[in-house]
Amino acid sequence: MAVNSKLRSAFLWRMLVKALTVRKGRAAIAVASIMVGAAVVFALTSLYLDISRKMSEELRAYGANFFVGPAASSPDRRFDLAAYRKIVASIPEEKLAGASPFLYGVVRLDLGNAVLAGVDFSGLKAISPYWQPEGGWITVDFDERNCIVGRGLADKMELTVGKTVTVFNRDKTFRTELRVKGIVETGEAADEQMFVNMSLAKKIFGTGERIDLAMLSVVAEGTEADALAARINGQFPGVEAKPIRKISQSDGRILDKIEGFMALVAAIILVITTLCVNAILSAMVVERTPEIGLMKALGADDRAIVFQFLAETVLICLVGVGLGLLVGFALAQVLGQTVFSAWVSLRPLVVPLTVGISLVAAIAAAVIPIRSAIGVVPARVLKGE
């Protein structure tokens, strides 16, 4: 029995290989069709699984998306700087694009009053990468001799880059001279403000280790921003954290549209691939009608015919999918670099998913050709009709 089984398997394998090699032109076209479909499915699925994270990272270039301030029930309009530092430390490094505390107050300059903000300049630069100060950024945290001024305030106070301005606190118990290191135009309220390091702002306002608010730029997918806010609010009493809805909702709408578009493209490519394979297999069945009739005349039943064509279809599909995975991975990298300037990760889940979808499409394409093969009448074929 074992010998017969081996002989049968060898015979079937030989029939399978011969059937495809004799019609290698059509078989190659079928393999190429499935390869294209599998490559597109693999590339778009890989990009789809990475897109939320990469889009969120890209959108962080448009500003902070997370706010932390004193709780509404708190009698104090400020909260501890230590709490801010603990909150920042609790966020995974790969999820935090940048963060800065803000301490606001009114100061007197040479030509009038102005709003001064104490910030962490390295964090401010990270959450506001679109700020391009004329002159330059303040680059060290202990710099208490320079400031950055908004364009509107600079025009009102007749300030230019390199000019020195005298700053008094409200009761004139603190005085310092600052050099304008940069002038920034943002189109926002920041255009009317002056920015200094947090250490200097604390000295000017005498607030101790207290800040007004903090702005964070967080890489978050789906409801992660809401979950982060809930966790912070639960762990830090007296603090209220919340995503900035306008930006978060814009992120979500953009992601939904792109993901929907990618799913539609993948579906269309799959349909086209299925139709191409169906046309090729149908042509192969027509071409092999005499062969099928002879097989039936020699005793082959419908199950043997179905098995023969299914085996050929699966073999073509596996070869096409194997090539498609390689091409799809390369295509995913091209798309990732072109759209996000980043490499797309290889996710093991995508491989069986692509194989499964491609097999379903190939078998669906083979249904009509196999039904045609089963319908071949040996007597009519042998008569040459």
SSE topology:
Layout: H1 2-22, H2 24-59, E1 66-70, E2 79-80, H3 81-90, E3 96-109, E4 112-119, H4 121-127, E5 146-150, H5 151-156, E6 164-168, E7 175-184, E8 193-197, H6 198-205, E9 210-211, E10 213-218, H7 224-235, E11 239-243, H8 245-287, H9 289-297, H10 302-340, H11 350-374, H12 378-382
Parallel strand pairs: 4-8, 5-7
Antiparallel strand pairs: 1-10, 1-11, 2-9, 3-4, 3-10, 5-8, 6-7
Helix pairs in contact: 1-2, 2-8, 2-10, 2-11, 8-11, 10-11
List keywords for this structure.
385 residues, nine-stranded mixed β-sheet, single chain, transmembrane helix, two-stranded antiparallel sheet, alpha+beta, 11 strands
Task: Write a structural description.
This protein has 385 residues and is an alpha+beta fold. Helix content is 57%, strand content 17%. The chain has 12 helices and 11 strands. Strands 6-7-5-8-4-3-10-1-11 form a 9-stranded mixed β-sheet. Helix 2 runs parallel beside helix 10 and helix 8 packs parallel to helix 11. The protein is rod-shaped and about 115 Å long.
Mean pLDDT: 84
| Spatial order of strands in the largest sheet | 6-7-5-8-4-3-10-1-11
- The helix content is 55-70%
Order of helices and strands: HHEEHEEHEHEEEHEEHEHHHHH
User: What's the number of helices?
Assistant: 12
Helix/sheet category: alpha+beta
Unreliable residue runs = none
The overall strand count is 11
Largest sheet, in brief, is: 9 strands, mixed
Strand content: 15-25%
Q: In angstroms, what separates the terminal alpha carbons?
A: 40 Å
Return Rg in Å: 34 Å
Q: Which shape, going by the Cα principal axes?
A: rod-shaped
